[in-house]
Sequence to fold (406 residues):
Amino acid sequence: MRQGSTSMRNDLPLSGVRVIDLTTVVAGPSASQTLADYGADVIKVEAPGGDTTRHTGPMLEPGMASLFLGSNRNKRSIVLDLKRAECREALFALTDKADIFLHNVRPQKLSSLGLSAADLCARNTRLIYVGLHGFGEDGPYGGRAAYDDIIQALSGVADLNYRHMGEMRYIPTIVADKVAGQMTVHAAIAALYQRERTGLGQIIEVPMFETMVQFLLTEHFNARHLVEAGGETPAESDELGYKRTMAKWRRPFRTSDGYICWMPYSDRDWRAFFCEVGQEVLAEDPRFHGIAARTQNIEALYALLEGFLCVHPTAHWLSTGNRLGIACAPVQRLEELESDPHLAAVGMFQTLPAGDWKMRAVRNPVRMAAGTAMPQCPPRLGEHGEEILREAGFADAIIARILGSA
Fold:
């Protein structure tokens, strides 16, 4: 594994790992950003217009919009117009010495450019070739365009919202992109570990659709996880969805002056709460005795709970929860997160220099004894092109031609 930029530390978990990142928008860039946080030298290869997220959201500098800033820290950028033969040759030179090639381009398009998995892996047998696709290529949806909304619609996210609240809605975050991005990270790291034993790279496919189906059905497959000896699923398996999370009352509970997250979980928690509100009899109610019974009767239980919580202010219940050992928390607005005392104490938000302006970064939440890279501002478009090509052994005249300056 090779050491990347001289500015990269050599004592981080992925120091010496080089990633050629041909991804755009959020899913792929969030994956390569995490690899960069762990110390990999991530070279972001961009088309002449740059990643579209460079222009999405507020910005203080053209090409450095907020959505781009959120998924591209700790990387280097080079602009290569892959329609040009000399630029493809430059990319071949980079992938020939790389550890990971990451893309979210349709495979058919890459094949037409000579950048298929077979093409690149034949040149570099140690290369880990990772394709982040919308759908598995061997299924009937293979090759279709996929965006987060498409995957939320197909995978059951919108249906879960309908079952829960009676309205077809997407979760208001690009959840499919981000989940697929993190799936990509651990698949790539697993392949690196396997290569240490075999000496060979491999081809990895990370399909967003299948990833979100697995993510959602962890709990929502419910009784359909079970198959009886005769091959039949139990009758109740038709009722998909984990009851506790599907309960309409599962939401922040109203107090007399606002809202609270109030989470009794164990038998001890519920007994302590019922005793606190003078309803010891409910602790012995068979509907609420034991987690299985509570799950079956969760709607009634949560309805009772809000009836008790709404008579006192939030501060009262936070104090009570801490005294009784019941998990609870205030409901914070997005604008309150930067002033949260815990997040401030762990340095979750960091201010980075970015020329004549500054960037506010949300750091990688993982902390490792061996360290993660300190956040650095994402690269300007093509900022490191000459540096990257010079490292690859190209002469100045060739570099000028590749970068279009000659």
The chain has a mean pLDDT of 93. The chain has two domains: 18-214+346-402, 243-251+253-330.
